[in-house]
Design goal:
The chain is of the alpha/beta class and about 575 residues long. It contains 19 helices and 14 strands. GO terms for molecular function: hydrolase activity.
Length: about 575
């Protein structure tokens, strides 16, 4: 049964951020379904550079701050197909020689990167784990120029006799720390997977401990949340766009050349260098949320190098603006309905007992907040508006473990106070009560990565008409989403152009998984990615929240483990 108490880190002045999790923390006993968080998508939304630039939090943000329960007894998963063969056992350190099988296939100009030596050493906080750094070119077209230093962390296979190779992981974001994700590998992967794989996390270029690019100031990030996301007049819309355009320009200026080279395509190329340095013939990869985008780009760029790849809570690099809007509406509507259904069954539901009126009460609350704001006890944020409130409500939908927090936050908001909702939002983006954002906040990566990964928004009248029609039909979604516009229009370089064709031709089976009711990466996008991949295998879970594997569904866990350990994928279209 779902724990009905608010999560401690969602409440005012409680410990925030997953870095504070004690090393000896033990996973809780399973009390129901628990899940996880979303990638930054287009169109960028008002403050939501905040719900599309911010609703991006990595899988790790939830999983590490509230580790998933221990895996349950695996259940049957039906018929299967065989994936590509297992990776050959390889050393846990050292580099293959330039003439080895693993090192073939790169340009001669990149040899200094593909043949560098990794010097693994015990990690400062855990001597059983190994940490190191590696170098990659800032610009692959000019490899002799400047380079990024990438931070890596390895949780070695717990049973060397069963070791299959390395499992490179990405928790999402963009901006999530793979190093911190690997730090808590035992909470994220089953004991069987931990026994067989060296779990290797890395901070992508420009992020965290990897030559960070910090292009946003505290005031810039506060501005993204304080701007009015639902302008009612031409003047208000002009102010909103000017504010966001200003933030984008300042990010480009501060970030410089490095900020222009933080695309997912370049991170995928970094992972191929990493694959060779780890000694793996093929890349075994687990990506969550935005990490699925990274995995798909890698698979499309290096299809012959794909080993066993799991993409959890996915989106397709081929998604169009209209598809994304459709998926977002479906994901949000199913998630808010699930929360409302849970809430109105309680005697203390802030929305009352009438399910048909509950949604309108949230609409009315957001309209009132736009006019008057909510009072808080936070220094420097004594009043908050729609930006913080909408973002915090949305983030509480990422996992049903935060539904009690959302219920109490809404109850407090109806009385004119916003401490609980603000505490939730601040914990997600790592904003301290002094107004300082942690250097590790994924917000720093939002603009450089998002502006590189997606084409500029179109201004087609037909799309604008569809957007207005959708906003009128879904008023709560419209308020949560805010104004639809392109927050990258002042970014100095163009975005990626989606292929719009089948991805990863020639790759072995790629397992794509997702929850039916996911507010962050809606199931429509997960299904599209499985279809867009030439060898995609779809596995869905009839659950709520964001994050599917090792989140309380033994059927999913059994299927994923069977694939990672034995190369056996479930039948395409299996539902758990």
């Amino acid at each position: 049964m779902l724990n009905e108490d608010p999560r401690p880190d969602d409440l005012p002045d409680a410990p925030t951020g997953y870095a504070a999790l004690p090393p000896d923390y033990s996973p809780p006993v399973a009390t129901g379904r628990v899940q996880t968080v979303r990638p930054g998508l287009r169109p960028a939304l008002a403050v939501v550079a905040v719900v599309a630039v911010v609703a991006v939090v990595a899988l790790a943000v939830w999983r590490i701050s509230s580790p998933p329960p221990a895996a349950q007894t695996p259940g049957p998963v039906g018929s299967s197909v065989t994936a590509s063969g297992p990776a050959s056992p390889t050393p846990t350190a050292g580099s293959p020689s330039p003439g080895s099988t693993a090192a073939q296939g790169y340009p001669a100009a990149l040899a200094p990167f593909y043949t560098q030596k990794l010097s693994w050493a015990p990690c400062p906080d855990n001597a059983r784990h190994r940490c190191t750094t590696m170098q990659v070119p800032v610009d692959y077209a000019k490899p002799a120029g400047d380079s990024f230093t990438l931070a890596l962390r390895k949780a070695p296979a717990t049973d060397p006799a069963k070791r299959l190779g390395s499992l490179v992981i990405n928790p999402g974001g963009p901006g999530g720390s793979g190093v911190e994700y690997a730090q808590y590998a035992s909470f994220v992967f089953s004991p069987a997977v931990r026994a067989a794989y060296d779990v290797v996390g890395f901070d992508p270029r420009g992020i965290g401990a990897s030559s960070p690019v910090r292009c946003l100031s505290n005031s810039d990030m506060d501005l993204l949340f304080s701007a009015d996301p639902t302008p009612d007049t031409a003047a208000e819309r002009s102010t909103l766009l000017a504010d966001v355009d200003g933030v984008t320009k300042r990010c480009a200026a501060r970030g410089g050349v490095r900020a222009m080279h933080m695309s997912t395509t370049e991170v995928a190329r970094d992972m191929d260098v990493m694959r060779v340095l780890l000694g793996d013939r093929k890349l075994n990869f687990f990506g969550g949320s935005y990490g699925t985008f990274l995995g798909a780009i890698y698979a499309d760029t290096f299809p012959e190098k794909v080993g066993r790849m799991v993409l959890d809570s996915a989106l397709s690099p081929n998604q169009t603006e209209l598809q994304e809007m459709t998926y977002d509406i479906q994901g949000f509507e199913s998630s808010i309905d699930a929360f409302i259904g849970w809430c109105v069954a309680r005697s203390d539901c802030a929305l009352g007992s009438d399910k048909s009126r509950a949604r309108q009460k949230i609409v009315d609350l957001l309209d009132a907040v736009e006019k008057k704001g909510l009072k808080t006890s936070k220094p420097g944020l004594t009043t908050i508006g729609e930006g913080w409130v909408g973002f915090s409500i949305f983030m509480c939908l990422y996992s049903d473990t935060s539904w009690p927090t959302l219920n109490q936050g809404l109850a407090q908001a109806f009385s004119g106070k916003g401490d609980i909702l603000l505490a939730k939002g601040m914990s997600v983006v790592e904003r301290g009560i002094t107004g300082d954002y942690a250097p590790s906040t994924y917000l720093q990566a939002m603009i450089p990565v998002r502006c590189a990964d997606w084409p500029r928004a179109t201004t087609a009248p037909s799309l604008a008409a569809e957007q207005k029609k959708a906003q009128a039909a879904h008023p709560l979604w419209a308020r949560m989403t805010g104004e639809l516009y392109d927050n990258c229009r002042t970014w100095p370089t163009p975005g990626r152009t989606p292929k719009g064709t089948t991805l990863a031709q020639g790759a072995g089976p790629i397992l794509v998984i997702g929850n039916e009711r996911d507010p962050a990466t809606p199931i429509g996008g997960t299904k599209q990615l499985a279809k867009d991949l030439a060898s995609g295998v779809l596995l869905t879970s009839d659950h709520d929240g964001h994050g599917t594997y090792y989140a309380g569904n033994s059927c999913v866990d059994s299927a994923v483990d069977g694939y990672l350990l034995r190369g056996t994928a479930p039948a395409d279209g299996t539902t758990c």
